[in-house]
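Extended Data, record Enoyl-CoA hydratase
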Amino acid sequence: MGPSDYSYEYFNVTFPSEYVAQVEINRPKKLNAFIEQMWVNLGHIFRKLSTDPDVRVVILTAAGDRAFSAGLDVQAAAEGGNITDRSALDPARKATKLRRHIQEFQDDISAIERCEKPVIAVLHGVSYGLALDMTTCADIRICAKDTRFSVREVEIGLAADIRTLTRLPKANVPMSWIKEVALTARDFYADEALRVGFVSAVCETKAVALEKALEMSRLIASKSPIGVQSTKEIINFSRDHSTLDGLNYVKVWNAAMVQTKDVEDAMLSGLQKKKPEFAKL
């Protein structure tokens, strides 16, 4: 696949280095706020990247200097009728319609986490609501010094229903802090996000953060794709299951995966002091 296979409205998909894809949200005049077509396209992009043999790592970023994303475009959502449905349908039928809509929305955002390849999110500027839903799905988060975060949904009378309230409690950050920022919808900034462990690095500017993500991506892409993708799968499974379940899963998984030629190639490269070349997956 190539760039022409990833032509989607509101997104720029580029390939800045071998085996590295960069997905850029592209609605900067609206602070990259999401309308429905955007999350549908995002789901399509990440499902395709998940099985693209020419991609081993994905960087998720956003266009413009002001915002990674201001979250859901509330005005567009209200005009679309899903939030403010005043039809004559009875409550159960309205609820069924809305439940299905939320499920589709969740599935498209969850495609980031379900992507077989590691995803590095690079945040900057305004990063509200859906920005956190998306980036809690990423494997690694780094941000620019100017990043301003908020779990925003209570401001519009909602509980966040896409990822944040489900994923933050599993992100190894303090539960008291999670509840505080979710209940108050207050802004928090890059230094606080680093202190609690929501991001793993803070960079001076967006450009520096992107360069750091690209450097990290090149390193990951140089490793065995069997080893990398297996590691992501096992970590995510173990996060959501007991220790015994995790051990059993990796036992069965590696009974197949250790039979790869990648293990031999990696071991020999260490002994021969040369860079290994791994087959596409």
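Summary. Residues 3-221 form a domain with the 2-enoyl-CoA Hydratase; Chain A, domain 1 fold (CATH 3.90.226.10).
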